[in-house]
Design goal:
Pfam families: Pkinase. This protein is 53% helix and 7% strand. It is an alpha+beta fold. Among the domains are: 86 residues, Phosphorylase Kinase, domain 1 (2-Layer Sandwich); 177 residues, Transferase(Phosphotransferase), domain 1. Strand 2 and strand 3 form a beta hairpin.
Length: 734
């Protein structure tokens, strides 16, 4: 036995013994570095066969659990071999086993049994789809924990099989008699014992559900699985059919995979001969006791209120740890902490919100830095979606979680059908999210429908913009998130249908967004977040004002005014961009750097040059190209684009003054000199010949540079005028 206060591997401080079973002792331990609690299982290697068998199971369990990521499955986080004793560090789980519940209360309500069955089938399905597939083989009530919030956790992947001598008659190498499928015992000589597959787990689960819903242990007389309504005629005949099909002796007669079983459980009432819906009984409060994922029947003497305090403290500590990690941009460690909080309390929204946001931040950070994120946002969304579908801790009714998930699908993934699904799950009567969800659901449905009319979408967005302006103060962060999304929709659609003239309305809304943000003094958005909002609004307004200018080309004064607005917002945008780059030592702009800011800088500089050109401000446009070349140099991934655009612009300026390139050197020498200089400088950019714009002009420029086009001043004077009929026939580049 390890004494309280002992520190294992310099990290895990033993706090108390909380359980014993066979050859192992389980302790509650605290991670001194992270200030979080773990379960630590101690197994002494005394050289006996039983210990070797247990250690072999331990190794098997560790190899399985180190790779799992499912709400119903626990994890092993560390294995320590110290002085001949093995310590297994794993998730600390509060609650009773279903076996304990059956002993106290007997048969459980069938609605609850079906819910547990769905969660367990989901976990088995996850294992069966791993590579290689994992067959659990030992489903039974004592291997399923009931967590305080009501969800279940599957335990015992090898280490929990104690192989105690007194229980040998009840335990096979691959399962427990009564719950084990016939194929787990092989033939009369034990042959074929390992011929198990996913259908074996389906049998085990069916036997387990039979025990839970009837209260009759298949390990006890009459040693058979009878139709459940023989024990209780009030039970569903549909559920009876499902359990009987699960427990057929021939695997071919069972459900062939857990997906089929899950579908059947979800529709068990449709299989009922004469099913009449009953009012669901409200589940009583679960008596919370300290337990472990690997121990059944042994609990610590901590009262309910004490456990609740511990639970709350642990939850808050996980959140704090996660946020600290994320501030340090250690998103992997941060998400692991948030996930622990979710496992501890699946009903609270903060852990879910922080968990998703950490994945978003990690993805954006990697994109900004031009690197590959180690975290995949899809994984986070899948995990949260799975918890909602399995009704983990009642999260399916948590509007804040549903809203965060839906908004992430909408804004980050642009998966509008998924967004509509989760927005639609939010109660429209919810004071905080009901109305918002309604607007977003409508917009999501319109964006997901390729046949929808653009005017419908714009009307929905305009209505939402009005609601957003009138129903949120300038101190509420939600208002500015909504503006951000409204701006993205406007800027994406602003040029699609000029007849609707949405640009004018879009500019009004987004100018209001900028004005409102200037008044923000709240606490939900820090300085960096406010700067990012301005960055996004500027981006929207640049596109909106450039479109307005194009729509007003018949009025030069008005058009130039709009171009000036676009230029102004370009300058603001670039100023913020440089501030963002300067604030991060790991990122630089231009040179040989690779990051998302380079593309953003390139796009806005080219937009600014384009707007100056449209105003007829040639010198200002050329200064923009020169400034961009100075930033990017010749080694950036965007260098070829900048030089090619600059070259093409000068070429078109030359062409506007004299269509025949043979006459440029003589008639427009200064402009031609600038053109050749850009050609010379750009020629140093690696791979520039693959740029189509550059390649199109290359031959003409090479001839200009080599002097192949040189003619005397007298010849130039005698040459046809640029606007004469003869000059019109001159081909560009000849």
């Amino acid at each position: 036995m390890t004494k309280e206060g002992t520190v294992l591997d310099g990290k895990y401080e033993i706090l108390a013994e909380v359980g014993r079973g066979g050859m192992s002792i389980v302790y509650l331990a605290r991670d001194k570095r992270l200030n979080k609690q773990w379960a630590v299982k101690e197994i002494k290697n005394d050289g006996k066969k039983s210990a070797k068998t247990l250690l072999k199971g331990l190794e098997r369990e560790a190899n399985i659990l180190k790779n799992v990521d499912h709400p119903v499955l626990p994890r092993i986080v560390d294995i320590i071999n110290q002085d001949g004793t093995i310590y297994v560090v794993m998730d600390y789980i509060e609650g009773d086993t279903i076996q304990d519940r059956l002993k106290k209360e007997g048969a459980q309500p069938q609605e609850l049994v079906v819910e547990w069955g769905l969660q367990l089938a989901s976990a088995l399905n996850y294992l069966h789809n791993m590579n290689p597939p994992i067959i659990y083989r030992d489903m039974k009530p004592s291997n399923v924990m009931i967590k305080p919030e009501g969800g279940v956790k599957l335990i015992d992947f090898g280490t929990a099989k104690e192989y105690e001598i007194e229980n040998n008659a009840d335990t096979t190498a691959l399962g427990t008699r009564g719950y084990a499928a016939p194929e787990q015992f092989g033939d009369s000589k034990g042959r074929g014992i390992y011929n198990t597959d996913a259908r074996t787990d389906i049998y085990n689960l069916g036997a387990t559900l039979y025990h839970i819903v009837t209260g009759k242990n298949p390990c006890e007389p009459p040693y058979e699985i009878k139709p459940i309504r023989e024990w209780n005629p009030m039970l569903s005949s549909g559920l009876e059919k499902i359990i009987l099909k699960c427990t057929q002796a021939d695997p071919n007669d069972r459900y062939q995979n857990c997906t089929e079983l899950m579908y059947a459980l979800e529709h068990y009432d449709e299989l009922d001969d004469s099913y009449r819906k009953k009012n669901k009984k409200k589940l009583g409060l679960f008596a919370a006791t300290v337990a472990l994922a690997v121990v059944s029947g042994i609990t610590a003497g901590i009262g309910y209120s004490g456990m609740q305090r511990i639970k709350l403290n642990n939850y808050n500590q996980y959140i704090e740890n996660g946020m600290n990690y994320c501030r340090e941009e250690n998103y992997e460690a941060g998400t692991a902490e948030f996930k622990k909080a979710i496992e501890l309390d699946g009903s609270e929204e903060k852990a879910y919100e922080q968990y998703i946001q950490a994945y978003i931040d990690a993805t954006n950070k990697a994109e900004e830095a031009g690197t590959e994120s180690t975290l995949n946002l899809d994984d986070a969304l899948t995990l949260v979606s799975n918890r909602i579908s399995s009704k983990h801790g009642g999260v399916e009714k948590n509007s804040a979680v549903l809203y965060k998930l839906a908004l992430t699908y909408f804004e980050e993934e642009r998966s509008y059908s998924q967004a509509a699904k989760y927005f639609g799950m939010i109660d429209e009567k919810d004071e905080e999210y009901g109305k918002l969800a309604g607007f977003y659901k409508s917009i999501s449905e319109l964006r997901s429908d390729s046949t929808s009319d653009a005017s419908e979408l714009m009307q929905a967005v305009n209505d939402f913009a009005t609601y957003n302006e009138n129903n949120f103060t300038n101190q509420e962060a939600t208002k500015f998130v909504n503006y951000r999304i409204i701006g993205e929709i406007y800027s994406t659609n602003v040029s699609k249908d000029a007849e609707t003239s949405i640009a004018e309305q879009a500019s009004t809304v987004m100018e209001q967004a900028v004005a409102d943000l200037d008044e923000y003094t709240g606490n939900d958005l820090d300085e960096e977040a406010v700067m990012d909002m301005n960055y996004r609004y500027d981006d929207n307004l640049i596109m909106i004002y450039e479109q307005l200018a194009k729509e007003n080309t018949d009025n030069e004064t008005v058009a130039n005014g709009y171009y000036s607005m676009a230029i102004s917002y370009c300058e603001d945008y670039i100023g913020i961009l440089k501030m963002k780059v300067d604030s991060d030592p790991s990122i630089s702009l231009g040179g040989s750097s690779v990051n998302a800011y380079n593309q953003s800088y390139y796009n806005k500089m080219m937009t600014e040059a384009r707007c100056y050109d449209a105003q007829g401000k040639t010198d200002d446009a050329l200064k923009i190209y020169e400034a961009a070349e100075k930033v990017f140099g010749t080694k950036n991934e965007w260098s070829d684009n900048v030089y090619a655009e600059h070259l093409d612009y000068l070429y078109r300026l030359c062409e506007a003054q004299e269509q025949d390139p043979k006459l440029w050197t003589t008639k427009i020498p200064d402009l031609t000199k600038k053109l050749i200089q850009v050609f010379d400088d750009g020629g140093n950019v690696l791979g520039i010949d693959s740029n189509k714009t550059w390649y199109k002009r290359k031959d003409t420029l090479q001839m200009l540079k080599d002097g192949s086009y040189d003619i005397s001043e007298e010849e130039a004077t005698q040459a046809p005028d640029a606007n004469s009929d003869d000059s019109q026939s001159a081909e560009m580049g000849e």
